[in-house]
Amino acid sequence: MNRPLHLDPDRFFPLDDRARGLARALFAEVEHLPIISPHGHTDPAWFATDAAFTDATSLLVQPDHYLLRMLYSQGVPLEALGITPSDGDPDPAAPREIWRLFAAHYRLFRGTPSRAWLDHTFVTIFDLKVRLEPETADHYFDAIGEALTRREFRPRALFERFGLEVLATTDGALDPLGSHRAIAASGWPGRVIPTFRPDDVTDPDREDFAINVERLGDIAGESTATWRGYLRALAARRATFRSLGATATDHGPPSARTADLGTTDAKALFDRVRSGAATAAETDLFRGQMLTEMARMSIDDGMVMQLHPGSWRNHNQTLFARFGRDKGADIPRTTTYVDALKPLLDALGNSSALRLILFTLDESAYARELAPLAGHYPALRLGPPWWFHDSVEGMMRYRRQTTETAGFYNTVGFNDDTRAFFSIPARHDLARRVDCAYLAELVTGGRLEVDEAGELAADLARGLAKEAYRL
Amino acid sequence: MNRPLHLDPDRFFPLDDRARGLARALFAEVEHLPIISPHGHTDPAWFATDAAFTDATSLLVQPDHYLLRMLYSQGVPLEALGITPSDGDPDPAAPREIWRLFAAHYRLFRGTPSRAWLDHTFVTIFDLKVRLEPETADHYFDAIGEALTRREFRPRALFERFGLEVLATTDGALDPLGSHRAIAASGWPGRVIPTFRPDDVTDPDREDFAINVERLGDIAGESTATWRGYLRALAARRATFRSLGATATDHGPPSARTADLGTTDAKALFDRVRSGAATAAETDLFRGQMLTEMARMSIDDGMVMQLHPGSWRNHNQTLFARFGRDKGADIPRTTTYVDALKPLLDALGNSSALRLILFTLDESAYARELAPLAGHYPALRLGPPWWFHDSVEGMMRYRRQTTETAGFYNTVGFNDDTRAFFSIPARHDLARRVDCAYLAELVTGGRLEVDEAGELAADLARGLAKEAYRL
Amino acid sequence: MNRPLHLDPDRFFPLDDRARGLARALFAEVEHLPIISPHGHTDPAWFATDAAFTDATSLLVQPDHYLLRMLYSQGVPLEALGITPSDGDPDPAAPREIWRLFAAHYRLFRGTPSRAWLDHTFVTIFDLKVRLEPETADHYFDAIGEALTRREFRPRALFERFGLEVLATTDGALDPLGSHRAIAASGWPGRVIPTFRPDDVTDPDREDFAINVERLGDIAGESTATWRGYLRALAARRATFRSLGATATDHGPPSARTADLGTTDAKALFDRVRSGAATAAETDLFRGQMLTEMARMSIDDGMVMQLHPGSWRNHNQTLFARFGRDKGADIPRTTTYVDALKPLLDALGNSSALRLILFTLDESAYARELAPLAGHYPALRLGPPWWFHDSVEGMMRYRRQTTETAGFYNTVGFNDDTRAFFSIPARHDLARRVDCAYLAELVTGGRLEVDEAGELAADLARGLAKEAYRL
Q: What is the C-alpha separation between A419 and C470, in angstroms, rounded?
């Protein structure tokens, strides 16, 4: 049918004309501000090697768990998308066939942010003029494939074209950070920085925890057979990350539970978990203790701490066994903060030297717990809407449910939080538009002056992220 | 005062003119589509006997727990509404007196869906021209009473007038389905089908559980003294329902908790609950086990499974003791799914042959749990907003909180879920309008193309229900 | 910069022109209705002595925990705001310096209700014409200070200027009510009434519980060494409050948990808690038992009962230890009602003689629990959005999530719930505007007739509060 593809220039703005006009004006002032991406999952190797991406399928479909989950939910087997099961042969499906299958199911994404991000990518990066549907699948596949062969579609060129001022990756505690070193050594001026994510050495429920802790010692040149040595090794790794530009750490435990044991108890607990004999209650306590330890180190070394709790990773055990992590089977759970964070806050919550940014997948906590906490404790800030809530409605709910209690200045701007590099401009475009829409509604509703809205639009688009992440 | 009664032709549409015009255009295309009613509580005897209804009070007030609850909350005794207490004489209140009492309190329903449904019924079915208030109570009572004597107000005539393509009732596992058999035998072409609701034989907390299980065996010609016989008896009843047109089962446990025990444990548990010696934990476990058993049978026989958890039935024990069930005293509770459904999902969640439709009274689960689950597991779909949330605001919250993660195609269209037969057109009218309003907002906000909205409007009004319930 | 300060005459109204025009018309009819303030925390001594307030800082900043919390969250030490720590010297900071600090941080309140209330106060009470910012801080401080020296800014003059029909304070069970007696004796016609808040003699977790109970006996002339005497003493205090005009009681336990023990058990429990030997479970049970006892007394003496559960008081223990209560460190928690209230409701919920008004800080309970409960039990009503939710968005969420199930007539109008006397007109102005906005949206959306909206606007502004609190 070859129906035209276009991006509504007023997309995501309020419906009301007065508010819409104002949102448009506010957005015009921030649309082209540089992008701060303080939290995400892009691969630093892209920028180290600057190698070309190969095709639409491996670039846009296969690594995107938002797409995999939706297709799978409607009966598309992962094998048909070229995801190889551990018990199976590599799937022979050609990238072009997979892309056609994706195009045939593209209507599933109607009304979702994936659709908005992809269409933005298609129009603004690949200059596509018709909608993705079965009839245009080959045209898309060819056009994208052709574009990717060109120099200006290489990672570094796109980094600049996207207006990225800084891009943070997320890296395990044991990561040698070779790509980050290579980028630094290359002379390329793009600012790509690591983020310290130590879950693999702080979560005793990981299968490879004991090995990881041992490797941590080896890498850091400390004996991790003792609690003190383990802490020293972590501090050493943090210092290494910091030397490569990191300004933040990130933590993804199943809950926000924290603890603050005395040294004797902490030491004994460490011995238990290291021995592999710990109960479930003990491993949970250990994770909680490590959050407080990390917060202490944050005060020492100035790293901003991010907490992303509440996802039940790999909820679908059959799928996990066959295909591994990050296939769209992580499901949020009820998450509370007021009780869970108390030990950490009792110890460190009054310190402005600590900056702990809280995220949630449980929106019921926004107005009930998170805004009141962030609106009181100097150490706390609220991260932007996360994951499933990184969407037009999700962002509006976030602003409506947090601003009146926490204000704007206890929030930290936008995180794109993506491994989909090509979607970064789309995500920031969407976030900036929704924030301008919200501000325009406040002004039109007599709740904010227009000059304040202009100042806030710039803060939300760039200033707050820069300040909050100490960039 | 005899103030005019009218239905705003733009009711429930967005306020913004552009979006409103678009909603109007979308609705015009779906307004007259046939009605699929895949889940509800109408009485099949109405269609078997086609007897006339008698008066406004017994038709519209006394069976409607939405009305009873609100009147009772404001101090109207149920006796004054002609509801007979078990410890009392039948109330002498005449239907006309009760109707007057209802009219005197009609203002209580301002802003509620009951008001919208009733006004729609008054205008479109009874052609009433003035509002219901004390001064017009007798006029209403007389006009409705007169209409009900006419042929075109008999159940079958209305079934056709309402444009019902299919109407599912809800029937206990022990129900002989006599009315359904009579309808089938009558030659009347209306499609009225049963739904298998086995709670009375799967919930050991029912007072009559042991007797019910025994009767189940008698009806099915199996010995239910054994676990195997009990399962065979259930399968047999399902087959009977299916032979009379049923395509679905329905389950209303207090929570969504599921279990998947081995046969030995299941058998032992069955013996415990049948003996009446089971603890509360064991009866709860048994209900959970039976959900998984029912899901297995669904894969075998193709019946769609509906789960309506989380209502505390008969919360008001004094009222329950005096007046029995369904008097408006069922209250929702916190309900979680991610943990509760895991045993069933581990066993069967990856099967597209299972279709399990999830409902909730706890809206905090929409975005946090239900949309992520339905947006991943092939077996899961999301039922429409249920009960207290079957309303303009409730429907908008549902769409806003589920669409961005689960999309539209993991939802199943509308359920009227009513025992109030005369309200069925009103409820579908409201649901179609709200869906068109939501779609119009997406289009006006640059989030959907207008041709897609048209296709979706038809899917939400009819297509998805037909497909999801395998009708 | 001296930017002009103005209040948008259409503030808080819908953006859509049609709905906005209607909201404006509805508001014009209720804007100047007398103010009913049935629950709040103003100091009755103000009206007893009618002494002048002294300066902007001690009047508007230091007692306002909304302001303290936000400033503190952004790193402003409480000492710098003139709050004296228990371990420190009185802060030498002059009121003017503190006001300047406040002005320098005024932007933190953008988008919050504090900003809306303060700007309304500045414009309508102090006739200020420019915005508060660093450049205008001194002008503000001088202008407000000068105004406060004038007769018409004395408490009684303002009470009349504000159009207060009745103002309820909140008073501990041991309060001698001297100020209320003085007001009564003064001949001044303003109606300032006490509210009986017995938490200090019903919560065994208060440090001074045992002493308080003994003092209760002394004041009431009963021996509180026995359960019967304790109950008699409470009844006597209630009678005293009632004789001074009280029509309500108020209760602020950590949860909504209730209990209904037999006399023997209750007596034994009282002995345990009085002895100081009670476990945490026992003190919790005792609080629950006392709610039911208070409800029984409410039926006896006609006092309306208010329940404000779910705040974790003094969550920040360091801050509490240094600065004491009410410094902005109270944080809400998950709060449920359906299970918690059952014992009380089983005993008394069907009585229209009991009026129990429920509040919440956990909005997830609005649609799930509170509206269904209030829409059924004759004893229950829903209080207005509380504390963090006393805001434009908070009020809209409340109406949208409660009206469709509980209707308007199970709600009780507005509570300003403030210790900030000068903000009372601002708070009622905001509440009336938001209610008119909601009603206008219902009418414009075809969900309510315009004459009904007019009637409801007056009920929500004044009638429901008057009726619900038996004023």
A: 61
Any C CB within 8 A of B7 CB:
yes
Q: Model's pTM, two decimal places?
A: 0.98
Secondary structure (3-state) at A420: coil
Above 70 in pLDDT, residue C1? no
**CA distances in angstroms from B181 to A300, B186, B188, B212, B215, listed in the order given:** 78, 9, 12, 22, 20
Instruction: Report helix, strand or coil for A64.
Output: coil
Contact C285, C341 (CB under 8 A): no
* Chain A residues inside the 8 Å CB shell of C131: 449
CATH code that applies to domain A17-51+154-468: 3.20.20.140
The angle at the Cα of A167, spanning A162 to A173, to the nearest 5 degrees, equals: 155
pLDDT at residue C307 greater than cutoff 60:
yes
Region B17-51+163-468: CATH code: 3.20.20.140
Average pLDDT over every residue of C288-292: 98
**Cβ contacts of C69 on chain A, cutoff 8 Å:** 375-376
**Cβ contact, residue pair B338, A332, below 8 Å:** yes
Give C456's contacts in chain B (Cβ within 8 Å).
110
Does B424 reach chain A within 8 Å, measured CB to CB? no
Q: Touching check for B388 and chain C: CB below 8 Å? A: yes
Alpha-carbon separation of residue C333 from A311, A369, A460, C309, C329 (angstroms)? 20, 7, 29, 9, 13
Tell me how many degrees the CA angle A393-A395-A401 measures, rounded to the nearest 5.
Answer: 100
At C256, list the tokens: 């909504």
The residues, any chain, with a CB within 8 Å of residue B230's CB and separated by 6 or more, are B213, B216, B217, B222, B224, B270
B251: which 2 tokens? Answer: 């389950």
pLDDT tens digit string along B250-262?
999 999 999 999 9
Rounded Cα–Cα distance for residues C137 and A148 (Å): 58
Q: What is the DSSP string of A80-121?
A: GGTPPPTTSPPP---HHHHHHHHHHTGGGGTTSHHHHHHHHH
In sequence order, what E strands does C28-139 have? 35-37
Q: Where are the domains of chain C?
A: 17-51+154-468, 54-152
Q: Which DSSP letter does residue C305 get?
A: E
CB pairs under 8 A between A and C: 127
- Give the CATH number of domain A53-153; options: 3.30.930.10, 1.10.2020.10, 1.10.150.530, 3.40.50.720: 1.10.2020.10
Return d(Cα C37, Cα C247) in angstroms, integer. 12
Tokens 């307030």 sit at which residue? C53
Q: How far apart are CA B297 and CA B291, in angstroms?
A: 10
Are A389 and B367 within 8 A, CB to CB?
yes
- Stretches where chain A sits below pLDDT 70 are 1, 90-92
Positions of E strands within B234-364: 248-251, 304-307, 311-312, 331-332, 356-358
Give the separation between CA A389 and CA C363, rounded to whole angstroms. Answer: 19
* Dihedral sign, Cα of residue A419, residue A421, residue A426, residue A429: positive
Under DSSP, is residue C312 helix (H, G, I), strand (E, B) or coil? strand
Spatial neighbors of C366 by CB under 8 A, at least 6 apart, are C360, C397, C398, C401, C402
Burial of A13 (0-12, 13-18, 19+ CB in 10 A): buried
ipTM over 0.90: yes
Distance of CA C129 to the CA centre of its chain: 30
| CATH topology for the C54-152 domain | uronate isomerase, domain 2, chain A (1.10.2020)
CATH number given to B52-153: 1.10.2020.10
Inter-axis angle of helices B424-444 and B17-30, to 10 degrees?
130
